[in-house]
UniProtKB/TrEMBL annotation:
<keyword id="KW-0472">Membrane</keyword>
<feature type="transmembrane region" description="Helical">
    <location>
        <begin position="75"/>
        <end position="97"/>
    </location>
</feature>
<feature type="transmembrane region" description="Helical">
    <location>
        <begin position="109"/>
        <end position="128"/>
    </location>
</feature>
<feature type="transmembrane region" description="Helical">
    <location>
        <begin position="7"/>
        <end position="29"/>
    </location>
</feature>
<keyword id="KW-1133">Transmembrane helix</keyword>
<feature type="transmembrane region" description="Helical">
    <location>
        <begin position="148"/>
        <end position="168"/>
    </location>
</feature>
<protein>
    <submittedName>
        <fullName>Uncharacterized protein</fullName>
    </submittedName>
</protein>
<dbReference type="InterPro" id="IPR004031">
    <property type="entry name" value="PMP22/EMP/MP20/Claudin"/>
</dbReference>
<keyword id="KW-0812">Transmembrane</keyword>
<dbReference type="InterPro" id="IPR050579">
    <property type="entry name" value="PMP-22/EMP/MP20-like"/>
</dbReference>
<dbReference type="Pfam" id="PF00822">
    <property type="entry name" value="PMP22_Claudin"/>
</dbReference>
<dbReference type="GO" id="GO:0005886">
    <property type="term" value="C:plasma membrane"/>
</dbReference>
Length: 169
């Protein structure tokens, strides 16, 4: 068991925690009298409702494009979690069954899962657009702490992938 392997696992777990909190909270965008995340829109700081999902065929075409962006951001965040959990499983196998497995191949697999996860996370954060289904001036919108926690998750994932790559070098 290497210190770098355990450090990489720690960064992956930290990234997962940040990603889950970012995904589950409703503070991706905030403004006067409202805040929203990937799943809910809360008005007057207490009254929350679910954000729409894309329907096939779409009944309203005026909101189709923003809903597609929102659904893609949701899917990318969920893919990030899947890849990071896979990286935790492989990295745990490397750490605890070090003598019985081909460690170098598993470390490369861990790095691959982490970098796929970070790619999905960055794509989801980059394509996220606030849902324009409410009357708010665009100048009143600001990205909030949940959104930036997603970027922190991406940063921790990059560090975890680099540590995993360096540990088998």
């Amino acid at each position: 068991m290497s210190v770098l392997q355990v450090t990489g696992l720690g960064f992956i777990l930290l990234s997962i925690i940040c990603c889950v909190i970012s995904l589950a909270t409703d503070y991706w965008v905030s403004g006067p009298e409202f805040h929203m995340g990937l799943w809910n829109l809360c008005k007057n700081k207490t009254e929350c409702s679910s954000l729409p999902q894309l329907e096939f065929p779409p009944h309203r075409t005026d909101y189709t494009a923003p809903i597609v962006f929102l659904d893609c951001a949701r899917a990318a965040s969920i893919l990030t979690l899947i890849f990071l959990v896979a990286a935790v499983v492989v990295q745990s196998l490397v750490i605890w069954f070090n003598n019985r497995l081909k460690v170098v191949r598993k470390q490369k697999l861990t790095s691959g899962f982490v970098f796929l996860g970070v790619t999905a996370e960055i794509a989801g954060l980059a394509i996220f657009r606030p849902f324009p289904g409410f009357e708010v001036d665009a100048n009143d919108l600001e990205l909030s702490w949940s959104y930036f926690l997603g970027w922190a998750s991406a940063g921790f994932s990059i560090v975890a992938g680099l540590v995993a790559m360096y540990s088998f070098a």
